[in-house]
Amino acid sequence: MNKSSKKYNSVLNEKRIKLHVFEPSNRKIWTVVGSDREYWLDPDLDFCSCPGYYFTKKNNEKNCYHLDSLKTINHATDIESVTFSDTEYRDFLSGLLSDLKK
Ligand SMILES: [Zn+2]
Questions:
Q1: How far is the CA of 51 from the centre of ligand 1 (A)?
Q2: Could you tell me the pTM of the whole model?
Q3: What is the number of domains present in the chain?
């Protein structure tokens, strides 16, 4: 087992990826719990807010392991999904963004 597949497994086994679903619009926000904060993942945009993402993009490498592991997981069993109301969407997003700026 190489180093990066160990990383995938730790992300998956600890269920660190969370899916937040906003009803009734069915908007989705993915997050992953990192070592000291929660990162924002967007698989459609191939975006992750972790420092590793900027580093790998800067070097023209592939995605960070959060995005890679998000693409390999079995959504039905490996993801913790939480449902919110659309009215909470704005607050959730601003909370997430303010967390990123710390
Ligand atoms: Zn990442």
A1: 7
A2: 0.76
A3: 1
